[in-house]
Amino acid sequence: MTVFHLSAECYPVAKVGGLGDVVGALPKYLVQKGVDAKVVLPFYDKKFTQTHTFETVYNGQSNLGNRGFNFEVLKETSNVLGFELYLIKIPGLIDRPDVYCYPDEIEQFIAYQISVLEWVIAQQIKVDVFHCHDHHSGLVPFLVNFSSRFDSLRNTPTVLTIHNAQYQGWFGWDKFYYLPQVDASKTGLLDWAGCINSLATAVKCCTVYTTVSPGYLEELKINSNNLEHLFEMESYKGLGIINGIDTDVWDTKTDTMIPHNYTITTQKKGKEANKKDLCAQFGLDDSKPLITFIGRLVLEKGADILPQVFSSCLEQFKGQVSFLVLGSGEKYIEEALAAIPKSENFNVFIGYDEQLSHRIYAAADFILMPSRVEPCGLNQLYALKYGTIPVVRSTGGLKDTVIDFEEEEEGYGIRFQNTNNEDVSHAIQRAITLYTNTKKTAALRKKAMGLNFSWAQSASQYIQLYNRLKTTI
Ligand code: ADP
């Protein structure tokens, strides 16, 4: 069975957040289980593309309205990722360093999607399932079914996985003419609230949509940036599959990005050694519980409340706790965090640093996630695997994966209800108290490290889904 994964991100080629982690891992696990999973990304001028070898497998030509463009399909030659990787390169449009935020992003993603389909029909590639990730490939389920240009692909099953419904790929009807000829009676499927909405189109036109946790599947009906009604109507074809961890990348025993490797049995020594190194680098007191935040500094993650939370906790729990933040995002949050005086109890690194994130997961005692929205959340899964106890808001995937140690006997984390200073400070207080009980802390760490959030399990659920789609067409 051949499955084409279409995505804007794929670790280690290009990663901004969890989408990159998932698309870098799931296809590998699918291949191991016998699925011919391929990933097709836009081309990025990044370290990975500069240091790997590619061959051109197709040269094509297409149009965005009346503007013609040439595109190239490049295949990575060594299969280093454990699956076939293809990149769509369009000179002057899709050949730049960053993944997002160009002013012509809409043109980029439409041209990317058209190119993928043009290539597939030109080479008559047999695709059993198009698996689209987020809105960047959200027009594919529509084009496959309702564009005469791609008639030969009609009825090919399409799966949409929603990693984040906050971003929807909106654009005005004035850009409708970018699309190849489509069935005029179906154009309403492109519309949501008066503009073309790529994510809404995908939800309407895909065969099945999945969310990255069962909790998020339900939450979308209540909170999905104006798509609540749509998710209510289409829920009959929704399915929640929790993300996994790529243990080739995230394993305390083999991780080459951390200075001191460790296992469940050596966790005490291992984490202490990693903490010592990290605290020395950031001038932090390593004898105190180290609480970290890693992630995008945006409202979704509740990062806007962090400056106030840290300032008040540094006052309230003076000298009893240390905080280290790694993140980037909204300027006003970056500035507010940077304005907190550095001390042996507080430091912040503004930026994106993959290796530092691994070192922090290995060194920290707790990870704080006050997210307002968390479709799955990978940070808490990596933290658990690295023996770092998650302190999370009870929402979406966090609710599905973290059990409070005082609420249930099998618990291993700390949960709180609201993204506000009071609830978060109280949770931090609970973490500080827990840390003083070294026996209990060690027991929870071991329990956390022993949990199984592997991709193997979740990949099987995707395979069941693909098989179901194949037999129903
Ligand atoms: P989201 O995709 O919403 O940002 P996830 O929890 O699903 O959140 O995934 C976040 C991923 O990005 C994790 O692998 C996390 O370690 C990584 N990450 C986020 N911010 C940074 C950063 N500043 N530096 C390094 N890694 C980061």
Description:
This protein has 473 residues and is of the alpha/beta class. The protein folds into two domains: 2-244 and 456-472, Glycogen Phosphorylase B (Rossmann fold), CATH 3.40.50; 267-451, Glycogen Phosphorylase B (Rossmann fold). Helix content is 36%, strand content 20%. The protein has helices at 18-32, 47-51, 105-122, 140-146, 198-205, 214-219, 228-233, 267-282, 306-316, 331-338, 354-363, 379-385, 396-401, 421-436, 438-450, 455-472, and strands at 2-6, 36-42, 54-64, 67-76, 84-89, 129-133, 158-162, 170-171, 191-192, 195-197, 208-211, 238-240, 290-297, 322-329, 346-350, 366-369, 389-393, 414-416. Helix 10 (331-338) links the parallel strand 14 and strand 15 (346-350). The longest helix has 18 residues, at 105-122. It is globular, with a radius of gyration of 23 Å. Adenosine-5'-diphosphate is lined by residues 17-19, 21, 164, 294-296, 326-328, 352-354, 357, 376-379.
Q: What are the defining features of this structure?
A:
six-stranded parallel β-sheet; 18 strands; binds adenosine-5'-diphosphate; 2 domains; 473 residues; single chain; Rossmann fold; alpha/beta; nine-stranded mixed β-sheet
Name the CATH architecture of the largest domain: 3-Layer(aba) Sandwich
Let me know the average pLDDT: 97
Query: Which overall shape is indicated by the principal axes computed on the Cα atoms?
Result: globular
Number of helices: 16
Q: Find the count of extended strands (DSSP E, 2+ residues).
A: 18
Count of domain modules? 2
In this entry the ligands are:
adenosine-5'-diphosphate
* CA radius of gyration: 23 Å
- CATH-defined fold name of the largest domain: Rossmann fold
Low-confidence runs of at least 5 consecutive residues: none
Can you identify the CATH class of the largest domain?
A: Alpha Beta
